[in-house]
Structures are given as C-alpha cells and as structure tokens.
Write a structure and sequence with these properties.
This protein is an alpha/beta fold and 294 residues long. It has one domain: Alpha-Beta Barrel (TIM Barrel), CATH 3.20.20.70. It has an 8-stranded parallel β-barrel with strand order 1-2-3-4-5-6-7-8, surrounded by 5 helices.
Length: 294
C-alpha cells in the first residue's frame, strides 16, 4: 500500500503568462508538509495534466519529488488515453523519483474490459513502482468493473484504486472482491467517511488543497475507528466541499487558494477562471469556517 490517509490531488499553479509558477508550487508543497498531508499526487487531473506538455509534466513531478525530499510519498499522474504514451510518461516519472503512479481510465476511447486490462497490465509491467487505478466514469465515460479490478489487483505492482464513482454499492462490492491489502481511496470529498466506513483506506482529495490538516484529521479519525469524529468533520465541511465543485474542478479550488493567498487562480484554456458568483460562495464559506476574515 502506497499510503493510508489523506493524499492531496495537488493543483498546478500557473503565472499570468501561463508558465508553471514554481515559487507558488514551493509554497503549496511546504503547506502540505507542514499540515499533515499523507501523500502528494502530482500532475493528476486536478493538476491539469491534460493541458501541459510531456516535458512540463515530468519537470513538475521531478521538482515535487525533490522538494518533498522523501518526507511523504509523491505519486505521479501519468494516465492518458494512449497506452504507449502512458507507458512513456510512467517510465519517465519513475526515473525522476516518483514513488508511485495514478492511472486514470482512458477517456473518450471507451475501451472494452479486455482493452482496459491490457492497458493497465502494459503500464504496470513497464515500471517497478506501484500503480493506483483511477475510475471516474463521470469524467471519462468508462468505469472499471469490480471483476476487472479484482483481476488487476492480482498484478503485483497494482496496489489500489481511486474510487470516484460516488456509488457506495460499488465500493462495498469492490472491498469484497479485492485483497485486504489492496487500497481503496475515495475520489469524492463529499463521501470520504461513508467510503471509509465500508473499508476505505483514505482519500485522494481536492478539498485537501485548501484544508489539508482538516482532511487528514477526518481520515485519521476513521482509520482510528472513530467514525463519529470523522463524520462530524465531514458534515461541517460539506457545504464548502459542494462549493469547491460549484464549477468544474479545478476551477473553484484554484479560486479558493487565491482567496487564501496561496497561489493565483490562473488556468490554461479551455478552462477559465471562476465566475464572480463562485468567488462569492467560496469566500462566504471560508469566512464561516474561520479561514478568512470578513
């Protein structure tokens, strides 16, 4: 298992000119190291991997690995809808020191079960570091069936899955099907505690970008068996979590980070900055939670 706890799906900060803002990235990484984040996922979908070049993607992963300096795992997002391309990115991520990979299902292609199996098998066999599957049918139009997840869990270095189905029946079936040491991470911040109550091992979180210690504490309470304490945090943060998805991710989370002075909210097209109503909503919740002054 690569990690238990709260893994942040880290945003990638950009300058006004659209370049990677490494000064802001330093600030964000240090923020997570100081506030109990258990793993950093670099260049996942929240990190806007789809709008950076291969060179930029590997450079950001390498930079993150060096800045983290072994304090917590760095997991590289290298999933894409062309298997050979994903293999190339995965091999390079391993070479620059990533501790593991996060591999989203191929989008648009709508691969068959056999195609998904061969895709993941080929990537896993190209590297020695462990891989986490990522099923998010709302964004890719493809779900990893429970039976296929079980088959893939038998490959030595496929060690877990990020479950962003939002379907707890799927999670329960998954927990019954895969080995006990095969990790299940919530991919939906609004159901972290419910997912952990049926055998989850943590979260790969958008929320943790903004509230890392609170997200860690929620997950740790569940890992300690105190689901009441975890649920109390989940319920308290639920309105803010909804606000973080008021527009498509990562538009609102970057706006929230800008409000907190962590980084600018610049994105690359086709994504654009949050609407004024989204800023107002996020600001209201951050004030209500005590993270901003009114």
């Amino acid at each position: 298992m690569l990690f238990q706890g709260s893994g942040v799906a880290l945003v990638t900060p950009f300058t006004d000119q659209g370049e990677v803002d490494y000064s802001a990235l330093d600030k964000l990484i240090d923020f997570h190291l100081e506030n109990k984040t258990d793993a950093i996922i670099s260049m996942g979908t929240t990190g806007e991997a789809s709008t950076v070049s291969d060179q930029e993607q590997i450079e950001v992963i390498e930079y993150t690995v060096k800045r983290v300096a072994g304090k917590i795992p760095v997991i590289a997002g290298t999933g894409i809808n062309h298997t050979d391309h994903a293999i190339g990115l995965s091999v390079e991520a391993e070479a620059v020191g990533a501790d593991g990979l996060l591999l989203v299902t191929p989008y648009y292609n709508k691969a068959t079960k056999r195609g998904l199996y061969e895709h993941y098998k080929a990537i896993a066999e190209s590297v020695k570091i462990p891989s986490i599957l990522y099923t998010v049918p709302g964004r890719t139009a493809v779900e990893i069936p429970v039976g296929l997840a079980k088959e893939l869990s038998e490959i030595d270095n496929i060690v877990g899955i990020k479950d962003a189905t939002g379907n707890l029946a799927y999670t329960v079936a998954l927990r019954n099907a895969v080995p006990e040491d095969f990790a299940i991470y919530s991919g939906n911040d609004d159901v972290i505690v419910p997912l952990m109550s049926v055998g989850g091992n943590g979260v790969i979180s958008v929320l943790a970008n903004v509230l890392p210690e609170e997200t860690h504490n929620m997950v740790q309470a569940c890992l300690d068996g105190d689901f009441g304490a975890g649920a109390e945090i989940q319920v308290k943060l639920y309105p803010f979590i909804n606000a973080l998805f008021h527009e498509v991710n990562p538009v609102p989370v970057k706006a929230a980070l800008e409000l907190l002075g962590m980084c600018d909210s610049n994105l690359r097209l086709p994504l654009t900055s949050a609407e004024p109503a989204t800023y107002d909503l996020l600001k209201k919740h951050l004030i209500d939670l005590g993270y901003l002054e009114s």
